[in-house]
């Protein structure tokens, strides 16, 4: 079973590259560990995930607004938030070959030790030390006046430093939320497992502000835990592959009073986190109020009281979601490999083919249909090889529907629509195609 999983993972990595989902970053220069580039299919998959997040959080609700804060922030932000001090992982170094590992990643350490054992080499480690994950950069055009800044280690702080701006510019009232999607950077000691642990990645987060009350916080914590799980299930992730896991006290980040992960049963070592739900209490707003001198209290019209709200956070990784959607949808069937991605996140929704690429009447009719569909539903054109090969290629990128223009089309203006999952075909009138697909995608 374990072997089967590893093989599948290799196949998925290979498909991701071959079909334009994910390429190693800076590949032609030997790569850069922990960085990945999303190709034409990957960018669509990721954009669709982000759009669905935004739709669920911002467009479908009255109590959440959006934000897009800067990646670069005044370094004082990271002192206030505790990241310069506490955003660390325990690092150990192998004294024999000087390779570095996370002290809490026991599997990797054992694997490394057995490499040395095989060669009958000494196994000796340094004492664990704290290694800060913030990535440093310098800003400024004059060499010696450069200011040290950090690439944000979580997208969260951009929201909290704008808490007052959002309050003053909108009509939100507690409880309310601010959603954000954006890049974060971490100097991970051992990036790996494909995109799972990268040094540059994207997060999709909600910071949900509530009254400072344990009962209120617990109610919203449970609510958001369930909402986020439902969101993944609604986009087709397999129920039996998801679970919640509560963090032990010593596992929690410095800002968290409670933390639960949503985990996926991955082919690379079992259950792995891809979203966290955290009770951040008043940590962020209190710290920023203290360090900046700003008043970050909220006046509650209902109770006529003033307080610093507490925060319940949902923090998902866009890249991890994309990776687990790919893994979850991957199937090998009799004579095809297929990504059974939910149509809402599939990169291409429809592919249009002429039955024969050398019959002008079929090609021009198919072109006409393609041009009509393309601005309305994400559509691609394919006239390579035979129909079987085109289905095969579309199945591999997860295109839910293929439209074929054949000789009957020229007579009665209908086409065949082939369903990716059932492989069943039905005839649909050309004039009804847009509404046919829109209904399926609704
Ligand atoms: N604001 C809270 C926060 O950042 P986190 O648990 O450190 O919490 C949230 O990160 C999510 O970000 C994770 O569940 C994961 O999906 C994603 N993430 C974190 N580190 C990552 C990495 N090195 N590579 C890819 N995704 C990562």
Strand content: 25-35%
The description of the largest β-sheet is: 7 strands, mixed
Cofactors and ligands: glycyl-adenosine-5'-phosphate
Distance between the termini: 37 Å
What sort of overall outline do the alpha carbons produce when their principal axes are compared?
globular
Q: What's the tally of helices? A: 14
What structural class do helix, strand and pairing data support?
A: alpha+beta
Q: Low-confidence parts, pLDDT < 50 over ≥5 residues?
A: none
Helix content: 25-40%
Q: Can you count the beta strands? A: 23
Q: Report the C-alpha radius of gyration, rounded.
A: 25 Å
Instruction: Write out the strand line-up for the largest beta sheet, numbering strands in chain order.
Output: 3-9-10-16-13-12-11
Overall average residue pLDDT: 96
Question: What does this protein structure show overall?
Answer:
With 442 residues, the protein is of the alpha+beta class. The longest helix has 21 residues, at 214-234. Strand 7 (135-139) and strand 8 form a beta hairpin. Helix 2 (40-59) packs across helix 10 (318-329). The protein contains 14 helices and 23 strands. The strands form seven sheets. A seven-stranded mixed sheet has the order 3-9-10-16-13-12-11. A five-stranded mixed sheet has the order 20-19-21-22-23, with helices on both faces. It has helices at 2-18, 40-59, 76-80, 83-86, 106-118, 156-160, 163-169, 214-234, 283-292, 318-329, 360-373, 387-397, 407-412, 433-441, and strands at 22-24, 36-38, 64-67, 88-93, 100-102, 129-132, 135-139, 147-151, 176-185, 200-210, 242-246, 258-266, 270-281, 298-300, 305-307, 310-317, 330-333, 336-339, 350-354, 379-381, 401-405, 414-419, 425-429. The radius of gyration is 25 Å and the shape is globular. Residues 154, 156, 186, 188, 197-198, 201, 203, 205, 273-276, 313, 315-317, 319-320 line the site of glycyl-adenosine-5'-phosphate.
